[in-house]
C-alpha cells in the first residue's frame, strides 16, 4: 500500500476548483505553498462536471488540475465524485430520490439526494468510480482515494418502497425466518404478529409508539446498506488502483449517530473523519472536551492507529442558527488537539471560500477577504507547526483508561417509550470523559469487542443495550485487575431490545453485586442529595446490595437511605456502580478514587484548563499541552518544545491560549 504522505503532519482540505475560473487554479497551488498545505481532497462534489450527460465523461479539467497539483508537490486525496448525483440522474431516475418518514419524496436541488437502497444509484456510482480508477490509478499526484462524502448525513433513513423490500431481505438474512423475526420483534405485543414478509415495513409514521426492535433494526439496516455502497466502490478501486489507500470520511462528532462506525472502520484502509465544533445549549456541554472525545473515539475506531481528520473549520461554519467565528489562536488549538488525540492529517472544509452557493459564508483556508487575513496567517502558522511535528507522525496515543461506546446502544437508548426521554446516550460518556480530561487522563473510547486486557480502568456508561459477550468481557477485565465503573441504564436489554429479567442492570448485576428493583427517574430540575454531599439529577434507582459495599447513599427524596453509588471487590479488581447522573465535581471525586485504586496517574502536572495528551513511538514520548484558558498556566515538564525549538525544564509557564509539544527525551 502506497504511504499517505508521512514526512510531516499532512495539512490541507477540500479543493473545489470547478467553482473557480481556470486561471485561479495556478494561483491556488502557489498559495497552497505559502500556507504550507501538503494535500487536497479533490472532486468530492464534481459528478456533474465529470459526467455532464449519462455516459459522457469530461476529464480534461481534472487532468489539468491534477497536473498543476502534482507539479506543485501537493498530494491528492482523489474523490470518486459520487457524493451527489447530477440533476440528469434524478431527472432520469426520479424514484432514486429518498422518501421521508411521512412518505414524501424529497426533491433534488441540494446534495446527497439518493436512496441508500437504490441499485441504479450504486451502478452509476460504481461506473464513475471505475472511470476514475482507470484514468488516474497511476497518476503520481494521487495518494489516496476518497469515496463519497459523509455517508448518511442527509439521506438516512429513507422510507421508500425499495428500502422496504431491501429491509425484508436484510431481516431474512438476520433472523432466518418470519417466526424468528416475530420472536425478535416481540410481535405478541399489540397484535403485531406477521404472517407474510410483505406485511413487514420500515418504521414509517405510525399512530403512536412503533415497535422498538423494528426501529432499532432499521438503524442497523441503514448503516449496513450504505456500507455496502461504500464497499462496492472501494472494491473497484482496490482492483483497478491497487496499492492506493481508500477511505471515506466519517462523522464521529457527537451530534451524528446515523452509522455504526465500528462496522465501517475495518473496511477502511485509513480511518478518516470530519469534526466541527458546535454551539450546544446544554450547560454541561464543553466544545473543546467534545472535540477531544471525538478524537479519542476516532482513534478507537482506527484500532489505536493514527487517523486522518478530513475536515474541520478554520473559523465559523454556516449551518447553525448563529455561527461564531473562532477567536485568534483557536484554529491552532483545535487542530493540534486533533493531532494530540491521534490525527496525522489535518484537513479543512474548504480551500477557498465559495463566492456563491449554499456554503458561501462558511470559513475556508482562503477567506473572501483573501490572503491578508487572520485566518490565512493562522493557517500559515499551522503549516509551519505541521512541519515541525514531522517526527510525531506514526506514533500512538498513550491511554490506560477505556470507555465503551456503542452505536447500537445509542440507537436503542434513544428509542421511544423509555422511563425518561431526558436520558440521552451521550450524556454520561461525555461527563466521565470530560472529568478525566480535566484531570489530565487520556481515555481510549472503544467499541465493545475491543480487547480490554491492557486497560487499568474500564468505563461502561449508559450501555443500555449490551450483548452477553460484552458483559463477559467487562467482567473478565474486572477479575483480571481492572477497576470497572458502570453507570445507570446499562445492561438493561439484549441485542433485540428485550429486558434482562431478575433485576436491573441484568447484564452487569452479578459483577456489580447489586440488584435494582425499580427506576426512579427525576423530573427536569429535580436534584437529589447524596450523603457525601454530592448531587444527582435525571435518574435514581431503588436498589439493594448483594455483595457490593455502599459508597454513597441517597440523603433525601423517596430513596433516602438507599444506596446510590456502590463498589464490589472482584478478584484482582473491582466493579463500581453509579445510579444517578452525578454533578461534575462528584464525578471528578469519584473518578479520582477509581484512578487511585487502579494506580493510574496523570503523566504531567499542569494547571487546570491545560489539556495534556501523550503520544509515543515506543522510544520517544511527545507531550501535547494545550492551554485552553485565557491565563498563563504552570506546567512541570522537561524536554524540547518542538513548536518553538526551545528546551524547557522545571516549572514553566505556558502562555494563555498557547500550545506546546514537548519531546521528553531531549
Ligand atoms: C461537512 C461536509 C462538507 C461541508 C461542511 C461544512 O459536513 O462534508 O462538504 O458541507 O460540512 O461544514
Description of the molecule:
With 666 residues, this protein is of the alpha/beta class. The chain is 30% helix and 20% strand. It is built from 17 helices and 30 strands. The strands form 6 sheets. It has a 9-stranded parallel beta sheet. Strands 12-11-13-14-21-20-19 form a 7-stranded mixed beta sheet, sandwiched between helices. A 6-stranded antiparallel beta sheet has the order 10-24-25-30-27-28, with helices on one face. β27 and β28 form a beta hairpin. The structure holds beta-D-galactopyranose (GAL).
- Poorly predicted residue ranges: none
Calculate the mean pLDDT score and round it.
97
> Separation of termini?
33 Å
Number of helices: 17
Structural class: alpha/beta
Identify the strand order in the major beta sheet: 5-4-3-2-1-9-8-7-6
According to DSSP, the number of beta strands is 30
Q: Report the radius of gyration as a whole number of Å.
A: 26 Å
Amino acid at each position: 500500500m502506497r504511504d499517505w504522505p508521512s514526512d510531516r503532519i499532512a495539512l490541507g482540505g477540500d479543493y473545489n476548483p470547478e467553482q473557480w475560473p481556470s486561471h485561479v487554479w495556478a494561483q491556488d497551488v502557489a498559495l497552497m505553498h505559502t500556507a504550507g498545505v501538503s494535500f487536497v481532497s479533490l472532486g468530492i462534489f464534481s459528478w456533474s462536471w465529470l459526467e455532464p450527460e449519462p455516459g459522457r465523461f469530461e476529464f480534461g479539467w481534472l487532468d489539468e488540475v491534477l497536473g498543476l497539483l502534482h507539479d506543485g508537490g501537493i498530494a491528492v486525496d482523489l474523490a470518486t465524485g459520487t457524493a451527489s448525483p447530477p440533476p440528469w440522474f434524478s431527472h432520469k431516475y426520479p424514484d432514486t430520490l429518498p422518501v421521508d418518514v411521512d412518505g414524501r419524496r424529497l426533491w433534488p436541488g441540494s446534495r446527497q439526494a439518493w436512496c441508500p437502497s437504490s441499485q441504479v444509484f450504486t451502478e452509476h456510482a460504481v461506473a464513475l468510480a471505475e472511470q476514475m480508477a482507470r484514468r488516474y490509478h497511476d497518476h503520481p499526484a494521487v495518494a489516496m482515494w476518497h469515496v463519497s462524502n459523509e455517508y448518511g448525513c442527509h439521506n438516512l433513513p429513507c422510507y421508500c418502497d425499495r428500502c422496504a423490500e431491501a429491509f425484508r431481505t436484510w431481516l431474512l438474512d438476520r433472523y432466518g425466518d418470519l417466526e424468528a423475526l416475530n420472536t425478535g420483534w416481540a410481535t405478541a405485543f399489540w397484535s403485531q404478529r406477521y404472517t407474510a414478509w410483505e406485511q413487514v415495513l420500515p418504521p414509517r409514521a405510525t399512530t403512536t409508539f412503533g415497535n422498538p426492535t423494528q426501529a432499532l433494526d432499521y438503524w442497523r439496516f441503514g448503516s449496513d446498506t450504505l456500507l455496502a455502497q461504500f464497499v462496492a466502490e472501494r472494491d473497484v478501486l482496490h482492483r483497478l488502483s491497487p496499492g492506493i489507500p481508500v477511505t471515506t470520511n466519517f462523522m464521529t462528532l457527537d451530534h451524528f449517530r446515523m452509522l455504526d462506525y465500528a462496522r465501517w472502520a475495518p473496511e477502511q484502509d485509513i480511518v478518516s473523519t470530519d469534526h466541527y465544533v458546535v454551539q450546544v445549549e446544554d450547560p454541561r456541554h464543553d466544545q473543546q472536551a467534545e472535540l477531544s472525545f471525538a478524537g479519542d473515539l476516532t482513534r478507537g475506531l482506527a484500532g489505536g492507529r493514527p487517523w486522518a481528520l478530513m475536515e474541520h473549520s478554520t473559523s465559523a461554519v454556516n449551518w447553525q442558527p448563529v455561527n461564531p467565528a473562532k477567536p485568534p489562536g483557536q484554529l491552532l488549538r483545535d487542530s493540534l488537539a486533533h493531532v494530540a488525540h491521534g490525527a496525522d492529517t489535518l484537513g479543512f472544509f474548504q480551500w477557498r471560500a465559495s463566492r456563491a452557493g449554499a456554503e458561501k459564508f462558511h470559513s475556508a483556508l482562503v477567506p473572501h477577504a483573501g490572503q491578508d487575513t487572520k485566518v490565512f496567517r493562522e493557517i500559515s502558522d499551522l503549516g509551519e507547526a505541521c512541519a515541525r511535528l514531522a517526527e510525531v507522525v506514526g506514533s500512538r496515543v498513550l491511554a490506560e483508561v477505556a470507555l465503551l461506546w456503542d452505536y447500537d446502544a445509542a440507537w436503542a437508548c434513544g428509542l421511544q417509550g423509555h422511563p425518561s426521554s431526558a436520558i440521552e446516550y451521550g450524556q454520561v460518556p461525555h461527563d466521565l470523559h470530560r472529568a478525566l480530561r480535566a484531570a489530565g487522563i487520556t481515555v481510549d473510547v472503544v467499541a465493545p469487542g475491543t480487547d480490554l486486557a491492557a486497560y487499568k480502568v474500564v468505563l461502561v456508561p449508559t450501555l443500555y443495550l449490551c450483548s452477553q459477550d460484552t458483559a463477559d468481557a467487562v467482567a473478565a477485565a474486572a477479575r483480571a485487575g481492572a477497576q470497572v465503573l458502570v453507570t445507570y441504564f446499562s445492561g438493561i436489554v439484549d441485542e433485540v431490545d428485550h429486558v434482562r429479567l431478575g433485576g436491573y442492570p441484568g447484564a452487569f448485576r452479578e459483577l456489580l453485586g447489586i440488584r435494582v428493583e425499580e427506576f426512579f427517574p427525576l423530573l427536569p430540575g429535580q436534584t437529589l442529595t447524596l450523603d457525601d454531599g454530592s448531587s444527582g439529577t435525571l435518574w435514581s434507582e431503588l436498589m439493594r446490595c448483594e455483595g457490593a459495599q455502599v459508597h454513597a447513599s441517597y440523603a433525601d427524596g423517596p430513596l433516602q437511605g438507599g444506596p446510590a453509588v456502590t463498589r464490589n471487590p472482584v478478584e484482582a479488581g473491582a466493579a463500581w456502580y453509579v445510579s444517578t447522573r452525578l454533578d461534575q465535581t462528584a464525578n471528578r471525586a469519584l473518578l479520582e478514587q477509581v484512578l487511585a485504586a487502579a494506580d493510574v496517574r496523570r503523566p504531567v502536572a499542569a494547571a487546570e484548563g491545560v489539556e495534556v495528551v501523550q503520544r509515543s513511538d515506543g522510544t520517544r514520548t511527545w507531550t501535547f499541552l494545550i492551554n485552553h484558558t485565557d491565563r498563563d498556566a504552570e506546567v512541570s515538564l522537561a524536554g524540547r518544545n518542538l513548536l518553538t525549538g526551545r528546551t524547557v525544564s522545571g516549572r514553566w509557564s505556558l502562555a494563555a491560549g498557547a500550545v506546546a509539544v514537548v519531546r521528553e527525551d531531549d
